[in-house]
């Protein structure tokens, strides 16, 4: 590939640019701007996917919406940019200023739509389209600018441009989870990215191509970039107040703890001296409600513990310590291993006054050991247990489907001691009975004999199901019963368990295929 700096100009690229530096350095600076802008563009995409998945769940759907809309919009932006090639420098400067503002504020605007409007899908599509149009407009303008710096054959120019673009996308993709999220969080991370975008685009045009700009265009870009940076800085300063107001709109007053971990957002509402029942939200979804958690955890734990030996118990999930609280009521328990993916949940369960009071100080018992690990990975290297409890998010959430797969239950069956039992929170029977019965079919597909039962949730509320569905399983048939003497549950009776099983069996759906890692059946 040979540079032809003295080649005649074309109407598409215009006359050679009058640069303050040599053509070689100018070309390098343009490619550097391509690199930075590509990194920022991918961060905007990942921000939208991550925040939409957190707000609405179903990460596969959210990623598909963002990426498909954005790629389509990039094509639209490329066509629209054809009209700006005659004034490529000022056009690129204007595009980058708008992109920095829209992309930088997109996460905050999307969160605001969810918090105060209750819906974020239309905002997600709108921001995906707008950002895609602006990213798509970059390439034709940059192609024109790089050709004006130093003419070369079109194939070579495209190769250089896209090489810088793809490397920038790699850096942006890695910077998002490993640098921006841990250091700044989602909202401030997007604002910081917008500032970098504005500085890179503005500096390229206002310095390298300044001789191409009229005085009016130069001052317009300076003022526009200054206002964009001021708006982004103001957003960063106001982010803590904005997040507090948004959390109050979402969770109501009384938010005591709000943490962003590497896994999720953790919010504790009420409890302690607040006078309100404690509620624990993980990733925006209600996981524990002090109003009715006893009913849920007793239904999850007591039938499995009463059905046979229970010296060694494994709890997958349940980092809040509430399942462990019920397990420790049995005198024959020698050890309880709690496998929780997010260590911060366990730390709160140990130290937060409201949550530790609710779990009865379960983690102070020497028989309880907490392990930070993925439940799937832990089962690969586990010992034998008398009881395995799966207290995990319901299978309708895409990241959770692997814990309801044939492969997962195959591993769980392997770690059951002779006479051991596995009990699974299988999600609500209503409004999606097919998902519940798919869990049952998947457990049976690995040779387990199952006993499904459904307990009504007395106070459905925000994030609460209409009922709780469970499946108790073992290698041989196992019945639902309670311990003949102590401990006696506060909310369960033998008759209640029989009714819970009848409720489940009345709605049984047969002939469902098992769910696998490669073919998840939930949400079909």
Structure description:
It is built from 14 helices and 11 strands. It is of the alpha/beta class and 524 residues long. The protein has 2 domains: 23-249, Growth Hormone, Chain: A; 292-506, 3-Layer(aba) Sandwich (Rossmann fold). The strands form 2 sheets. The protein has a 7-stranded mixed beta sheet with strand order 7-6-5-8-9-11-10. Strands 1-2-3-4 form a 4-stranded antiparallel beta sheet, with helices on one face. Helix 1 (23-56) packs antiparallel against helix 2. The chain is elongated, with a radius of gyration of 29 Å.
Per-chain topology:
Layout: H1 23-56, H2 59-80, H3 88-117, H4 121-149, H5 154-208, H6 215-251, E1 255-260, E2 265-269, E3 279-282, E4 285-289, H7 293-306, E5 312-317, H8 322-327, E6 335-340, H9 343-351, H10 353-358, E7 368-372, H11 375-380, E8 385-391, H12 406-414, E9 416-427, H13 433-444, E10 449-456, E11 467-474, H14 494-506
Parallel strand pairs: 5-6, 5-8, 6-7, 8-9
Antiparallel strand pairs: 1-2, 2-3, 3-4, 9-11, 10-11
Helix pairs in contact: 1-2, 1-3, 1-4, 1-5, 2-4, 3-4, 3-5, 3-6, 5-6
Function: Catalyzes the irreversible transfer of a propylamine group from the amino donor S-adenosylmethioninamine (decarboxy-AdoMet) to putrescine (1,4-diaminobutane) to yield spermidine.
EC number: 2.5.1.16
Organism: Streptomyces violaceusniger
């Amino acid at each position: 590939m040979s540079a032809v700096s003295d080649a005649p100009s074309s109407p598409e690229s215009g006359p050679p640019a009058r640069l303050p530096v040599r053509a070689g350095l100018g070309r390098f600076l343009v490619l550097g701007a391509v690199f930075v802008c590509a990194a920022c563009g991918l961060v905007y995409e990942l921000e939208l996917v991550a925040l939409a998945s957190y707000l609405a769940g179903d990460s596969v759907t959210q990623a598909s919406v963002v990426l498909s809309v954005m790629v389509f919009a990039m094509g639209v932006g490329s066509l629209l940019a054809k009209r700006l090639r005659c004034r490529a420098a000022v056009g690129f400067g204007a595009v980058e200023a708008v992109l920095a503002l829209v992309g930088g504020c997109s996460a905050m605007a999307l969160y605001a739509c969810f918090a105060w409007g209750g819906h974020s899908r239309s905002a997600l599509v709108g921001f995906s389209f707008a950002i895609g149009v602006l990213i798509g407009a970059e390439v034709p303008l940059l192609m024109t600018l790089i050709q004006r710096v130093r003419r070369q054959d079109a194939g070579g120019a495209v190769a250089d441009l896209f090489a810088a673009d793809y490397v920038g996308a790699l850096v942006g993709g890695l910077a998002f989870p490993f640098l921006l999220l841990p250091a700044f969080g989602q909202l401030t991370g997007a604002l910081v990215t917008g500032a970098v975008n504005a500085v890179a685009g503005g500096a390229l045009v206002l310095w390298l191509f300044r001789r191409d700009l009229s005085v009016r265009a130069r001052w317009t870009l300076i003022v526009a970039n200054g206002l964009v940076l001021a708006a982004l800085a103001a957003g960063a300063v106001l982010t803590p107040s904005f997040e507090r107001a948004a959390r109050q709109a979402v969770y109501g007053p009384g938010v005591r703890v709000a943490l962003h971990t590497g896994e999720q957002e953790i919010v504790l509402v009420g409890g302690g001296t607040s006078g309100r029942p404690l509620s624990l939200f993980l990733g925006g979804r209600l996981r524990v409600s002090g109003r009715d958690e006893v009913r849920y955890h007793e239904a999850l734990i007591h039938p499995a513990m009463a059905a046979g030996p229970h010296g060694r118990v494994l709890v997958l999930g349940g980092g809040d310590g509430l399942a462990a609280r019920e397990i420790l009521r049995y005198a024959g328990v020698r050890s309880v291993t709690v496998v929780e993916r997010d260590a911060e949940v366990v730390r709160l369960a140990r130290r937060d006054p409201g949550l530790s009071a609710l779990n009865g100080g379960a983690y102070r018992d020497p028989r309880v050991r907490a392990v930070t690990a993925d439940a799937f990975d832990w089962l690969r290297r586990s010992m034998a247990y008398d009881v395995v409890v799966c207290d995990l998010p319901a299978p309708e959430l895409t990241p959770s489907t692997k814990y309801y797969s044939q492969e997962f239950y195959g591993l769980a069956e392997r770690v059951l001691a002779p006479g051991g039992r596995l009990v699974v929170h299988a999600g609500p029977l209503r409004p999606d009975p097919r998902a519940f019965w798919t869990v049952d079919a998947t457990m049976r597909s690995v040779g387990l004999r199952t006993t499904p039962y459904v307990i009504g949730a007395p106070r459905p509320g925000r994030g609460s199901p209409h009922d709780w569905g469970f499946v108790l399983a073992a290698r041989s048939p196992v019945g639902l019963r309670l311990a003949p003497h102590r401990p006696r549950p506060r909310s369960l009776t033998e008759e209640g368990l029989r009714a819970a099983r009848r409720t489940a069996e009345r709605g049984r759906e047969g002939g469902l295929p098992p769910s696998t890692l490669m073919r998840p059946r939930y949400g079909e």
